[in-house]
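Dear colleague,

Thank you for sharing your sequence with our group. We've completed the structure prediction you requested, and as agreed, I am returning the results in plain text so they can be pasted directly into your records. Please verify that the sequence below matches your submission; if there's any discrepancy, let me know and we will rerun it promptly.
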Amino acid sequence: MESLLRVSNLSCERDDRLLFNDLSFQVQQGDIWRVEGPNGAGKTTLLRILSGLGSGFEGEVFWRDRTIQQARFEYQSSLLYIGHSPGVKAVLTPHENLRWYMSLHHHVEADAIDRALAKVCSAMRMCPVTAFRPVSNGALP
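Please find the predicted structure tokens below.
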């Protein structure tokens, strides 16, 4: 099976500190990954490299067996990177945020969004996120 994303021998150093060295992994369609670690461990640097926004690293990042530089348009068209300041509206549910975002870029049926959220919830062992609404000042909706 062809990997969607393949990282080969990725290494990165910042301020004379090695963040990661010879990092290699593959991501298959349907995989859900979570990157975690303490502050300064290199999480954001890794995600910026994987999204094509980072520089100053060694190794290769492949999208469908082509480097992300070679497959730049296809790769970036398939990518959603949410950094430290996510472009979501706190007053909307996850479903409403996704529906809004997808209306800007793609036509996606509401049930497809529901299925995707259910898959994420299941993988993260969470209850359905579509049921949540932000509550302000302790007031119930």
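Summary note from our side: Residues 5-77 form a domain with the Rossmann fold fold (CATH 3.40.50.300).

Kind regards,
the structure core
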